[in-house]
Amino acid sequence: MKVHVIGIGLIGGSMVLDIKNLHPEATIYGIDNNESHLAEAIALGVVDAAATFDDLATSDLVIVSVPVDVALIVLPKVLDVIGDNTIVFEVGSTKSPICEVVANHLRRRNYIATHPIAGTEFSGPSAAIRGLFEGKTNIICEVEKTTFKLQEKALELFKSMGMRIRYMDPKSHDKHIAYVSHLSHISSFMLGKTVINKEKDEQDIFDMAGSGFESTVRLAKSSPAMWTPIFKQNNKQVVKTLEEYISNLSKFKELLENEDYDAIYNEMQSVNKIKEILNGMHIKK
Amino acid sequence: MKVHVIGIGLIGGSMVLDIKNLHPEATIYGIDNNESHLAEAIALGVVDAAATFDDLATSDLVIVSVPVDVALIVLPKVLDVIGDNTIVFEVGSTKSPICEVVANHLRRRNYIATHPIAGTEFSGPSAAIRGLFEGKTNIICEVEKTTFKLQEKALELFKSMGMRIRYMDPKSHDKHIAYVSHLSHISSFMLGKTVINKEKDEQDIFDMAGSGFESTVRLAKSSPAMWTPIFKQNNKQVVKTLEEYISNLSKFKELLENEDYDAIYNEMQSVNKIKEILNGMHIKK
Predict the structure, then answer these.
(1) CB of B278 closer than 8 Å to CB of A217
(2) Is Cell inner membrane tagged as a keyword (chains A, B) (predicted)?
(3) Cβ-defined contact of A206 to B120 (cutoff 8 Å)
């Protein structure tokens, strides 16, 4: 099996580590604009060798794992040069623009639009880890547009990585993911900003911040290069979630200003059910 | 050694578990208004036996670990009945009101105002765990108001639990902690609310929420009974942090509406230094 990964970072790198583990006979080829990332990926054993787009005609599987703005350019180019039976994944955090851009491509049926909901706040080849996708959800969009035989192979691979599969149309995907992923990143970045701005003397943060702050601000370590194009592509949905979030925060602030502590108690209690929801996530892994 | 813990939850319970581990000869007595918590704490072996306020005269150490509004009533009562050499800790997340309420108490010198910055999102006796304070910071306020001999004993105990000690005046404590703890809780609760409100069908959250959302919303599992009085006592500071947070979120939303992606990139990049700050927290443990 010949596998090509274009953009060797957290998601693409982790995916090929799993593939190599499941299929030791597979050869993993890397393509990356960033020469030092490519060299690092080879040195770390994440990929076996470098490749170019010319090699994709004989590839069994191409994984496109680049920032979502770059994917809009790279994916059509990939589809232009692959073979009849090459499967192509693209794993970005927005799905409508990418599905639109290849909607009429002659090789649309070789492409599977996926979003494996997995990750850490780290990036680059050194962030790749085996088992990242175990127990995680993989959203597949427009599955009906992919050739059945290639669908089957892809599903088998996702399942062998331990992923749960869910099907969704691209618009619903982008709307929902704005709430459970994109908004979390902004809330975290702006929390980090608020505290950093206040505490000019960083020693104070470091002395008083506990695990609660650390957990809430973790996503503020994420890569701006990855997240800026996500916010661009999902602009309208993200602005909408942000409006609702700001409105909820403003109402909470009003309750504090009015010293309405019964209402504050009730607000928090009604959100406490997030416990059961999150527990559900784990039970149903 | 006779130790009494008043309010046997996450903090008080974890503290006596450590004490029992470090001093196996110690007898741990529990006092709790909640009969079922008391019974549960005994059944779990967190405390050895139940006690009453009448027993405090012969206690070596009393730990007051109740919600901060209850502490304002309980701590003076405790100081009324303890012996000459009894040490009293109180471990709440606000320090100005409690320090004011006992400022002129005849036994002020037996009291150490502390805030061990440790915790999880769980509560009650079953949340108590050994080693919770290892590597964590303990803020002590107005240390000069405690008898030197009792200070020494308390510090020895905190250090044997693995805590780093920092001294701070109550007002500075309450101001700083609003940023690194109280605000995180509100940002998390309101994030949970925003998503729950949107996703009436909880299945959607559960299907699409990844570890990023889980981390950011973790604090929304926290106890409203504990947090409402904290927000009440630190109202002014919390409102101020919330204003700054809302203002930063609104500016970010404006950048999105104006499609100023260079500025969005720069915003995120400037907050990325939170990485080094959080790493510093761990290195200097």
Answers:
(1) yes
(2) no
(3) no
Going from the C-alpha of A229 to that of each of A69, A129, B263, B265, B273, the distances in angstroms are: 6, 24, 12, 9, 21
Among the partner residues B249, B256, B268, nearest to A246 by beta-carbon distance: B249
Element (H, E) at B13: helix B10-22
Check residue A50 and give its pLDDT: 97
pLDDT tens by residue, A6-55: 999 999 999 999 999 999 999 999 999 999 999 999 999 999 999 999 99
| Site from A234, A254, A268 to mutate, B interface, most B CB atoms within 10 angstroms | A268
- Whether chain B has a CB inside 8 Å of the CB on A264: the answer is yes
Closest CA to A118 of B213, B247, B23, B175: B213
Best CATH choice for the domain A2-170 from the list 3.20.20.60, 3.50.50.60, 3.30.470.30, 3.40.50.720: 3.40.50.720
**Which residues of chain A register pLDDT less than 70?**
201-206, 281-285
B28: helix, coil or strand?
strand
The pLDDT of residue A205:
66
The CATH number that domain B173-283 falls under is 1.10.3660.10
| Those residues with Cβ within 8 angstroms of residue B236's Cβ, 6 or more apart along the chain or in another chain | none
pLDDT in tens, B117-147: 998 888 899 999 999 999 999 999 999 999 9
Average of pLDDT values for B65-94? 97
Please report, for chain A, the start and end positions of each structural domain, with discontinuous segments joined by +: 2-170, 173-283
Identify all chain A residues contacting B10, using CB atoms and an 8 Å cutoff. none
Total beta-carbon pairs less than 8 A apart between chain A and chain B: 295
pLDDT, residue A285, reads 40
Asked if ipTM goes beyond 0.90, one says: yes
Cβ distance B228 to A253 less than 8 Å, yes or no, reads no
Q: Which residues on chain B are in Cβ contact (under 8 Å) with A222?
A: 268
Instruction: Report d(CA A74, CA A33) in Å as an integer.
Output: 11
CB within 8 Å: B181 and A120 = no
